[in-house]
Amino acid sequence: MKSPLLFLGSLMMTTFATAKISAENALTEREQGIVQIAAFAANGNLEKLKTAVDESLDAGLTVNEAGEVFLQLYAYAGFPRSLNAQNVLNAVVQERESKKKKTIFGVPPEKVPSENRYAVGREQINKIFGYNAKQNRPTEMGYATTTDVFLKEHLFSDIIQRNNLKVEERELATVSMLAALFNVNPQLKAHIHGALTIGNSEEKLRGLIQIFAKKVGKKEAKNAEAVLAQVLKEQKETKIPAEEEKPAIPREAQISAFAVGNSNDAYAQYFIGKSYLASLNRDEVSISNVTFEPGCRNNWHIHHQSGQILIVVGGTGWYQEWGKPAQKLRPGDVVHIPPEVKHWHGATKDSWFAHLALSLPGENHTNEWLEEVSDAEYLKLK
Question: Where does the secretion signal sit in this chain (predicted)?
Fold first, then answer.
């Protein structure tokens, strides 16, 4: 059996190979697939969708990832087109299996937190669109406030939080859907802004427009190009001068060769202190880099139906199982966490800490978050 480090190395080589940049534009082959299947599913061109789905699966997109795009579609184009797209996906998979063509199903998403869904959705919107809203869940339910609750608790919590597609990829898919629908420019403008804010480059959006011009429709491409130009103009006019900007991630957080990612706001309720999360891989095995500021730790928790492997890549931290003494962790340490074991992990009080978290495959796996690691417990550790 391969060691966790050798296994991680082979997975990363596969991931980097899949992420080969096309000479045509700045989108990877996988991202090009997402853009095309989102567009044809949204405009209802099922014949082109079938071809695009088959090509996307060849390019490394998994069946579960394509299904996520079509699930998300219903919030923007309605259930009929979402269900039609899912039916096309199922038909393509069956046809590929009959031809013995390699098809990767990929991993399903982890369970989305069910508590504080309004706040989780609100913070996801803040992150994607660069807002700083702090409103509470409405107590009265007129049509406008109900729509607000649906957007935050369902679309931006139940759907967007499903983690087998990166948020950046979901925003590319959403821009493609809205551009294909053609007559929804206020929403297209908002999501182009969101795609840029969450980390997609201007070049990637221009790559999306190139795909539209060649494969979807010239009028749709021209319209999307005009909206992108408007967003870029407005962002330039409102941009804070560079000397006044503050980095979103402290320099001290970069303690390993892996990306730090974004503020881990979606799971902040389960952490004491600030943490950052970067998704590195979702194919077959989920790999994330989690970075903790000094003193930060997560709550006691249990992984049901599936274990986890932690590989320390920077700083100094702690790992503790229920009923056992805490063990200090340093770069190079590997921790195997079996399923159903209550535990916590985090930084020491005076050091940043980073580890890779590998979620082992398992059916119906969930995380159960429990009580906090109190200051009294934590400060005893030496």
Answer: 1-19
State pLDDT tens for residues 250-265: 889 999 999 999 999 8
Percent of the chain with pLDDT over 90: 73
Distance CA 343, CA 334 (A): 15
* Shared domain check, 194 and 271: no
Q: Among 307, 308, 356, 361, which residue's Cα sits nearest to residue 105?
A: 361
Q: Could you tell me the pTM of the whole model?
A: 0.61
Per residue in 183-240, pLDDT (tens digit) is: 999 999 999 999 999 999 999 999 999 999 999 999 999 999 999 999 999 988 876 5
121 located within any domain: no
Contact 305, 365 (CB under 8 A): yes
Paired tokens of 26: 């700045």
**Residue 135 DSSP code:** P
- Classify residue 58: in a domain, yes or no: yes
How far is Cα 27 from Cα 22, in angstroms, rounded to an integer? Answer: 7
Domain assignment of residue 203, given as a range: 17-109+162-238
User: Tens digit of pLDDT for each residue in 309-346?
Assistant: 999 999 999 999 999 999 999 999 999 999 999 999 99
Tokens of 143: 């049509």
- Going by C-alpha positions, the residue among 170, 177, 171 that lies closest to residue 42 is 177
Contact 322, 340 (CB under 8 A): no
Residue 209: enclosing H or E segment and its boundaries?
helix 202-211
Q: How many CB atoms sit inside 10 A of residue 116's CB?
A: 15
Please report which confidence band the pLDDT of residue 16 belongs to, taking 50, 70 and 90 as the band edges: very low
User: Are 220 and 350 contained in the same domain?
Assistant: no
CATH of the domain at 231: 1.20.1290.10
Q: Measured between alpha carbons, how far is 127 from 345 in angstroms, rounded to an integer?
A: 25
Domain boundary among 213, 238, 263: 238
- Residue 149: phi and psi, rounded to 5, are -65, -45
